Amino acid sequence: MKSLFYRASLCLSALLLTTHANADSERAIDHGPIGVMGDHFHKAGEWMVSARVMRMHMSGNQAGDDELSDSEVIMQPNAPGRMPGVLSVVPQDMDMDMLMLGAMFAPTDRLTLMGMVMASSKDMALTSYSPPDMTNSGPRSVVGGFSTASDDIQSVSLSGLFRLQQGASSRTHLTLGLEQAIADANVADTVLTPMGMNMTMRLPYGMQIGDESLRLNAALTHVYSSNKWVFGGQISGKFKVAAKDWHFGNSQQVTAWVQREMNRRVSLSGRLSYARASGLEGMDAMIMAPVQTAIPANYGYKKWRIGLGANAVVSLFPGQSERLGIELELPVDTDTRGVQMTPEWQLTLGIQKAF
């Protein structure tokens, strides 16, 4: 994944160095927080390229909105029909990195096309516990710790942003597009079993980079400006069109943000978002480790998050100035379906250049 990030960065740098513009009228507040996708459209003939890097960190476990200790996790039931009858492997920490490379082009004032390639890397640290006794009530010792990892190009997408309304102080647009998950959903790694053996096994659903599904992406975005303030809102969703034996369910998100222009080149933002996902459908018989992430019933959530961010206009390459963005998102309330890891924070960095 590091080499993939390096090659992508070189490609983006080469592209930025070839861009030109006749005038520099950029303002930091013209675009929304970097964590909001497809927040704006362009005028006919305009291009924009972008790169975003996002890291999400999770630590500990919960069921619903209750925290769980390791001793409580290993008392949770395994999937029906699997042995042992309770869990024996507990996730401790997980980091997920994402690289998103995008391009936008407006053939007309009313339509902006947007394409994106997304790559992901996942790393998880886990602890294996000894098997339970016949009554599932005796003490269980730590067998040891281990880690698993996966990385690949996750998906490609193509969308259209359709301008519905644009005035002196407000604008509204509809986004419709398709996203194809292209990563193989059969990645394996070496795990430490409760019996103390190292074994190569297919990784659980949450550690797979993609589910090979085709999805419809839809969003409605409205932005209102008043002097040095901008207020925005977006309703978005991802809906399955075609899928393989197992796949992640539909998801929706509502987000609202406010931005304050400090000066022409710097703006600050605050954002509140609510997201929900319906869970996982289907199953893979080869995913069978006694860990919560291998159980289809342990997927799906409702999450409230707040985001704090900043945009800055800088001059790094020839032509029109670039826009840099940073946003830190923190959980306010998380309600999981079944046993899942607890989200801690998410950081997004990005660069955008129009020409």
Structure in words:
6% of the residues lie in helices and 59% in strands. It is mostly beta strands. It has one domain: Autotransporter beta-domain (Lipocalin, Beta Barrel), CATH 2.40.128.130. It has a twelve-stranded antiparallel beta barrel. A two-stranded antiparallel ribbon has the order 7-8. A hairpin with a 7-residue loop joins strand 15 and strand 16. About 5% of the residues have low confidence.
Task: Work out the number of β strands.
Answer: 17
Write down the overall mean pLDDT. Answer: 92
Compute the number of helices: 2
The SSE order reads HEEHEEEEEEEEEEEEEEE
Please identify the top-level CATH class: Mainly Beta
Calculate Rg over CA atoms. 22 Å
What is the topology, as strand order, of the major beta sheet? Answer: 1-3-4-5-6-9-10-12-13-15-16-17
Computed structural class: mainly beta
What is the CATH third-level topology name? Lipocalin
Q: Separation of termini?
A: 29 Å
Number of domains: 1
**CATH architecture call:** Beta Barrel
